[in-house]
Design a protein that fits this description.
5-stranded mixed β-sheet; 308 residues; alpha/beta; 20% strand; 48% helix; globular; 12 helices; Nucleotidyltransferase, domain 5; 10 strands; 2 domains
Length: 308
């Protein structure tokens, strides 16, 4: 096969996916390998997995390596200087110093795939949370994404951590009444309320804490006062993230927002509250679910990177 071909990589913490396309964006082949997130595995394993992805794509498609024209990888941390340098050095060695590869965050490829455009806004609320705005000419703006110890408001980790903190306060009559304690303890594999002290400070990571968020969702359905307030505050925080990026970027002309992430997909209560707040704060903003995947967004950015 001959011509120009482009790869997009959606770099995950557990699995990563690659798609190979022609210049029209038609997907020729797909493949999967392990993590390409340097915060999840070692850099050696990351670059081994990227090599596996690229070699597999070349072998299964019958395309020669020299026919690869440009690429894009979106992964956590790639907007930071140290990680950017590591990845750039790898691609320089693997594909040559003149090869064009766009290195960006996993949120940016989700924005482009979700919008099926290279300009607009996205809000991601999953284990963590972040809002982004993107312009073709002026780049990115962001709000949030500081991690659950400093922020990530409205995310699953924030919802669960806030619930644990406020349940403990409620036991001391310093907060709203709640019936969540027993279910939260059971979900965490704990037996008594003060086990949460060691659990949060020493034993649990972000993913383990985020996994407790469904307890809050369940109790909100039962009209638990504390659960309801936490989700209402979470929805307001997420709406404020969107307002922040819109305020920062009056030059973004496409007034479309894509909503994505596990909290958005699985928590109807917080999603509806969020949409209501956005309608009041930003009535001219069109809000919808993703049109395409983050992987397709990476392919779009690879082609655009070549053309720009």
């Amino acid at each position: 096969m001959s011509g120009s071909y482009f790869f997009g990589i959606d770099g995950g913490g557990t699995h990563s996916r690659l798609a190979l396309t022609d210049i029209e964006g038609n997907i020729i082949t797909r493949c999967q390998a392990g993590s390409t997130n340097v915060f999840s595995v070692s850099s050696e394993e990351v670059f081994k997995n990227i090599s596996l992805l690229l070699n597999s794509a070349v072998e299964t498609s019958g395309i020669q390596k020299h026919n690869l024209t440009a690429g894009c990888i979106g992964s956590a941390g790639l907007s930071r200087e140290n990680e950017y340098k590591l990845f750039r050095e790898f691609f320089d060695k693997f594909l040559g110093t003149d090869f064009k590869v766009k290195l960006c965050s996993d949120a940016e490829i989700l924005l482009c795939g979700g919008l099926d455009k290279l300009e607009g806004y996205c809000l991601i609320a999953g284990t963590g949370s972040i809002a982004l705005g993107r312009s073709r000419e002026k780049g990115m703006v962001r709000s949030g994404g500081f991690g659950y110890l400093l922020g990530d408001e409205g995310s699953a980790a924030w919802i669960a951590k806030t619930a644990i903190s406020r349940i403990l306060k409620s036991l001391e009559y310093r907060d709203l009444p709640t019936n969540m304690l027993d279910s939260m303890l059971k979900a965490a594999g704990l037996t008594k309320y003060d086990d949460f002290i060691r659990y949060v400070h020493h034993d649990a990571d972000k993913a383990k804490i985020a996994a407790l968020a469904p307890v809050v969702y369940d109790y909100a359905k039962k009209k638990d006062p504390l659960a309801l307030e936490i989700l209402c505050i979470g929805a307001e925080e997420l709406a404020n993230m969107v307002r922040s990026v819109v305020t920062q970027s009056p030059w973004i002309l496409n007034r479309e927002l894509v909503l994505a992430g596990g909290v958005i997909e699985h928590n109807e209560f917080i999603t509806e509250k969020l949409k209501d707040k956005l309608a009041k704060l930003l009535p001219d903003l069109a809000v919808f679910s993703p049109k395409k995947t983050a992987l397709e967004g990476a392919c779009m950015l690879a082609i655009n990177h070549y053309k720009s």
